Amino acid sequence: MPAEIGSVKVEIDELAARLAKLFDGELVDVSIQMPDTVIAHLDRSVLRDVARRLKQLPEIGYDSCNWIAGVDQLTHLESVYHLYSFATNTYLELHVQVPRDKATCPTVSDVWPSADWHERESWDMVGIKYEGHPDLRRILLKDDWIGHPLRKDYVDLVENHPNV
Fold this sequence. Notes:
By secondary structure, this protein is an alpha/beta fold. The chain has a single domain (12-145), classed as NADH:ubiquinone oxidoreductase Nqo5 subunit (Beta Polymerase, domain 2). It contains 3 helices and 7 strands. It has helices at 12-22, 47-56, 115-126, and strands at residues 28-33, 37-42, 64-72, 77-85, 90-98, 104-106, 129-131. It has a 5-stranded mixed β-sheet with strand order 1-2-5-4-3. The protein is elongated. The model has no long low-confidence stretch (mean pLDDT 95).
């Protein structure tokens, strides 16, 4: 059961410093987006381990995954995780860089079950494959759709529109 909302009083800069120290070398470029969000980057090789530990943190655990966004940054893709801590009433935004030519990232759907559909949407629209996902298939587009429409190099094909 989640903690009562805001039951742990902590300033956002103190929380950012605490997370940077707890995950030293794993969370990098830790910054604050006022009033209630900590932003950090991490390598995809440590994502699952960091996710488990973030959820289980005493007092300040990030018990909810509200959203995962697949983003095309032209030179690379990103999987961006928007997490929430009921106890601190704060958000944590994690950015994981994913190479365009090997667009894979480990699943966190076993850590936060809500990640399931978000990872499927990211796969469907941007083409990031979440390794270990229990049912990675299209969620918005038809199963035989060719390509991933939110990639900036996407070109739609007539085969995707047989009735036009």
